[in-house]
TrEMBL record:
Cited SUPFAM superfamilies: Periplasmic binding protein-like II (SSF53850)
Protein name: Sugar ABC transporter substrate-binding protein
Domain of life: Bacteria
Cleavable signal peptide: 1-21
Alphabetized Pfam families for the sequence: SBP_bac_1
Keywords: Signal
Amino acid sequence: MSRFAAWTAALAVLFTISGCAAFESGKEPAGTFTLWHYERPESAMGIAWNRAVELFKASHPKVTVHVETKTFEQIRQNGSIALNAEDPPTILEHNKGNSTAGVLAKQGLLTDLTAQANSRGWDKLLPASLQTTARYDEKGIMGSGAWYGVPNYAEYVTVYYNKDLFAKHGQQAPTDFDGFRRVMDAFTAAGVTPLSLGGAEYPAQQLFYQLALSRANRAWVDAFQRYQGSVDFTGPELNFAAHTFADWVARGYVRRDSASIKAEEMNHAFQRGEFPMVVVGSWMYGDFVRGIKDFQWSTFRFPGNKLHPGSSGNMWVVPAKAKHKDLAYDFIDITMRPEIQNLLGNSGGIPIAADPKALTDEKSRHLIEEFQAIASSDGLAFYPDWPAPGYYDVLGVAIQDLINGTKTPAQVLADIAKPYHEQRATVGG
């Protein structure tokens, strides 16, 4: 049986459960339902959530619905303020991990969703590996404790490549790390910068993390992310990442001005055909499917890595101060329905409860198969900014220093080690 066939057989069971969990209209309450999310309308998640809102309105005709689209940065920087307001949104999409959802859960700003997860069957729909980011203990460390969020899709970081540019320069998708460097050397020799990179936001630190993961194992990931062991910032994992990243800048694999480039600009540059490759998450897959018209493209997993940045997708969270929380729970149910999950999967996302027979888009099947290959081999390694509050900004500055050459790799490692160890000390890690 193929990996995709095995996965679809497993999803058939989830399809049945999801059908039972779907909201059944009846005595719906009146009130106001306010939803915040940060998915672009053309993304797979944006398409799916917009349809979910339509179904919610149809099944809750007495409810006034407000949908507000924020940016990732707006919620990352101001989410705790909104959650602590006297009249917060009913539900919102939020990032996951110790440094975000874990902190909010520890502060008492999120609703404990454990009873709902059990009674509505969300715990059956989410495999154990994807429940890691939904649950947090009393210290705000992910992986155990109460449910404080519900993800309903999955994601991982991969390499997108322009097949036409590869063919033009006589290159093929590499299968190991040395082959990856040879491909990039071939492009730079031809005067082509191999990688589109955004150093002003998250993409650059995810590339840095990919390099660390190329020398890491599961024990190191658990130590770094969940404080289950010591982390040596001068050890082979992070030391390799810092020195290799600096070397890649020196070799011209990325542009020296990329420290000021944002994620959206990075992705658009690849979409315009200006770069052979971009390393970014599966959340861009649907955008590229619909936006790239002038060349053929595909993806390959970061060459040689067994571990990859990735996890469940961003989560629905319910503010502790929210009114009409039952409406939030009903909306989560709707996003778990096969109709929404199927739409998500066929639009370039990675669903967790789709009807296998309904996943007909070939490019989407490729994406899902790639994710399943990673997930089934315990290859999801979360994201580098998760361990400590504020670590996203710490890493951002550090990677910009590497790109600009204003600090040595050793200095950068010292800069990112200090706040990490300070946070571990505060939680007894």
